[in-house]
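Can anyone check this?
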Amino acid sequence: MTEAELAVHFIDYFSDWDVYQEVPAGGIVDIVAERKPIRVALEVKKSLNFDVIEQARKNTGYFNYSYVAVPMSKSLQYQNGIQIDICKRLGVGILAHSERTYGEVSRVQEVLAPRLNRQVYKVTLEDWMKRSTAGSQNDRMTAFKYFREEMIKQVRRRPGMDIKQLFDSLPRHYGSLSSFKSCVFNHVKSGVIPGIEFRDGKYYAVKETGG
């Protein structure tokens, strides 16, 4: 089972929460679940090692609760091992997924409850973060990818948009109109933003030609 496949089980565990994936917060957090005002961070790994514990520790500065999310093991089942002791001291919780089911018991269980972090720096959660795939860098949605998709959609819907119309209709990826203007022009010209052309001071979708 890959980390991306494992992550699906923990996302299901928070099915009645708003779930974001691959969230920038002093690093990249695999999963963030939010039920306002509470935010929970999960770091998904195939084993409970010191690296994932350190990642989860850093998340305590940004989220009310921080977990490591791993497959069930004997040490977790019997709650022994130095990693569990370290998590207790750091206030990091442990969620474990088991392939076996026992009646109606969920496959994901809380092995160790995390400590509540009241004073945290709240990062901005954007809707595009819901479209990433936790544990998979190839399927990670970024702010620029989202901006690019939205620009292509807007130009296809409204051919002939000028730079001010684009600036007003798109997510604020660029801080000013001047930086937006130069960056968009260069990205379109170089093909970084594909399927769009700049003509007579306006942007148009490139017409597809039949083969």
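Reply from J.R.: I decoded it. The chain has two domains: 3-131, 143-205.
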